[in-house]
Amino acid sequence: MNELANTALLHARDLRVSLAGRIVLHEVTLAPQPGWTAIVGPNGAGKSTLLRALAGLLPCDAGGVWLDGRPLGDWSATARGQRIAWLAQQGESSGDLTVRDVVMLGRLPHLGLFDAPGAADHAAVDDAMHRCGCSAWQSRRLSVLSGGERQRVLLARALAVNAPVLLLDEPTTHLDPPHQVAVVRLMQQLAAAGTTVISVLHDLPLALQADRMVVMHGGRLHAEGAADSSAVHAALVEVFDGAISIERIHGRLTAVPML
Amino acid sequence: MSANTAPQHAAERSSRRGLALGLLIASAALLLAGLAAGSDGWSWPGGSGADAGLIVGQIRAPRTLGAWLVGALLGLSGAIAQGLFRNPLADPYLLGSASGASLAVVVVLAASSLGGLAISGAAVGALMQLGLVGAAFVGALAGVLLTLALSRGTQETTRLLLAGVVVGVVLSAAGDLLASAAPQTLRARQVFLLGSTGFLGWSSVAWLAAGLALMLPVAWRLARVLDALTLGADSALSLGLALARWRLVLVAVLALATGLAVSQAGLIAFVGLVSPHLVRRFARAMHGYTVVASAAAGGVLLLASDVLARSVIAPQELPVGALTAVLGGGYLVWLLYRGRAA
Amino acid sequence: MASCGSWWRGLSVVWTLACVALWSADVSAATGSAVALRDDRGREQVFDGPPQRIVSLLPSLTESICALGGCAKLVGTDRYSSWPVSVNALPKLGGLEDTQIERIVALRPDVVLTAPSSRVIDKLESLGLRVLVLEPQTHADVQRSLQLLATMLGTPSAAAPLWAGIERDVALAAARVPAAVRGQRVYFEIDSTPYAAGEGSFIGQTLGRLAMANAVPAALGPFPKLNPEFVVRAQPDVVMAAAVPLAEMPGRPGWSGLRALREARVCGFQPAQYDLLVRPGPRLGEAALALADCLVALHSHP
Question: With contacts defined as CB-CB under 8 Å, which chain B residues touch C226?
Fold first, then answer.
């Protein structure tokens, strides 16, 4: 475990988090390796809470999160923001900014409050928008976009940070299949380039394309391992009460509902 | 940029420039109008040079400038309030500044009559030195501090809003209680609550200008915080923003700007609420632009109301707060109506 | 001899009745002991007998009732009523905006006297109380309302001597005003908004009886809300106001240019005296004397 912790950029040890007096995460220990890790589990398993805790957005009762060997709390907000990018599950977007302005907000950790965006920032924004397929609407206002289009813009915002750790909470919400596939490919590309991508996904067929899977249940880590390992598959079937079966169809892993 | 968005981008940029130019021209025109509008309707005062100089230089000029500055401070505060709370109905008086100011005014008004009874003579002397203007300013700040204390910081905006409502109600009730114990203050308190630009002199203008010169750049610099907040507080935090600190600074700017405006001109309603909406109607932009443009729009709105108040039934005056509601609110109603019909 | 005496008695009764009829055009003929009175709303109220429990929500009406000898019948007043001193012991029922309706009802008044701007008229009437709305704005109004209240109290003849006394005092005050001061233009400020007393208001009329001119012409109405610039341009000869706002006037932008302020040709009134001046009631004569005294003092200390 300690060896793994040494190579993981971000890891959590014995993490206990409670919300409104109720313990939501029980002693979770996780050391995600560079690559794409998918966190799955039934509703209320604590997936989003875990992601939030990893992003440093929640205080922990016990245990902690380490970034690059140092406790998360020791990092300055800016340094942390440059290293960890987080995408919320419920994409908020009040106000009337243009798409480009929203994606440019992703450069905040690098710009701070006072600097004007430079060439590097514009390049990062262009690249992020291109990868998410929203370059065509950069001047459009967020309020006129559909749910799926808005989701892609918010994803681009998270990408623009160019952080080594990417925490995505349900990145495929509102997206239709072609775009879901595009996001999956994107996460695989980023993972191959060395980024630590951790995504919470309730969509099992998509999650099964990841490198590694973390199965959560009742606030605890139920199982962890390679996405194609049978142990993980067995754990999946168990936490979902046997309602699914993991099959290989056309060479790809998928989860089939047992009707 | 693809072909179909380039013209839109250009159109938006030109609308921003157009609004800025329009506000500049409107301000200049109204400043001139303010010098000409007086108790004779539209006229340049005749008579001897010294008297005309007194009228224009000591009465009309500072009143005109002062009205624009008060409106600008209120417009600025309104833009900050709406951005901080992500609520298009937020106004500068949200956090207890209005009720704090009016309570302080009643305390000073009643001080002379309550002196010896409830408070010591020295305290009465100090209060009279402070005067109504100083008291209103201190009261506004005290109201906001009380709200911050009640909500234990700026962590959660909902708690801050609720605390503001509670403080507003409690301080307002305290003011009512005190006023009924000293009924001779009721009239003067009413005068303050209604709001007036009638007695803005050069010393008021100096304070107002200094305040605006200080607050506007700070708010403009911190506008990015408001932009980031549109993504939600957690996302803004994840972007490395020291949200609690910057929120506190923005609340401080809000309190100071509102306190300054209220202490000089009383509780003028609507300007803070309506100015950001007027700006957004004509130009969409990020908060850096919106905050500055709201200040200018607020200045134009209040100055226009003041000029009208003086000239419509000269030498009598209409209450300026009623005119801001008619001008600003009427325009919004017309927008809504047009939106529904379209 | 006896027939001569009864002839004169009969004639004096007829004469008294004629005087009463001449004084009060608004009072309808009495039917038996019942009296019908028309208030300022034009509403007619029939009183079977003089009311025994009266609530007054306007200080001038409180003073009128007391001056007409009905003080004992008052069971409650508004918070501002302060004269005569005995009314301070009565329950205070709030102002015109925040009248305490439940307390009024609990006092079981036979009639409630109030101003047209009172918010509670409809509410009180719906609760079964009789409301008489009066708002004297001019000297003629004061005379009329005194007569109306006197009739209501069952002593219709009490009004005339009271009014005669007022007229006497006003004439006395007018005689006191030094000739050198007569005709000078007075600016009387009601409050610091600024609201002023115009020529047509009862204050303006009193000043008119004192042979003073008014800086605020009648065309602007009785109590106009003025542009401060107007006062500076008008350059009144005498400024009259409550003491506290008067002290702050030189601080108003441009008002240091008012010659009257620079030369201290001002009349500042303490709260009690100020109340006396702004109430259109039975103390109009006293008010005129107070104004005259101030003008005399100005003349003797130029």
Answer: 39, 315-317
